[in-house]
Specification:
single chain, 107 residues, mainly alpha, 5 helices
């Protein structure tokens, strides 16, 4: 059975639409206040300043490699793992949601 050429792109388009919808809802219901507290508690700004210099804000440039909500959440999880912070998935989401709201503003 062959698929008509006119329908070949539809599954990919549907997948892309679903992925985009999932990204926009990634932080829905996240505890942003908890995320802000965890950022302070784990001294994220101080670690970033040590790694990039200055006040550390250059690490959270929206124009950098973090260009989507999913990449933001993945980077927070990366820091959680690398720094052995012991945050649970909801904590990681809360931190990413706080960063999204305060710095990134992805649509």
């Amino acid at each position: 059975m062959s698929i008509p050429r006119s329908l070949l792109g539809l599954p990919l388009l549907a997948f892309a639409a679903a992925a985009l919808a999932q990204q926009t809802d990634l932080f829905k219901g996240a505890d942003v206040a908890l995320g802000r507290r965890l950022i302070v508690e784990h001294k994220c700004a101080e670690c970033h300043a040590r790694n990039v210099g200055g006040d550390g804000n250059a690490i959270s440039r929206p124009q950098g490699r973090i260009n989507s909500p999913a990449r933001l959440a993945a980077m927070v999880e990366y820091c959680n793992t690398q720094m052995n912070l012991g945050m649970f998935p909801d904590d990681v989401t809360a931190v990413a949601a706080a960063l999204q709201q305060d710095h990134y503003h992805f649509k």
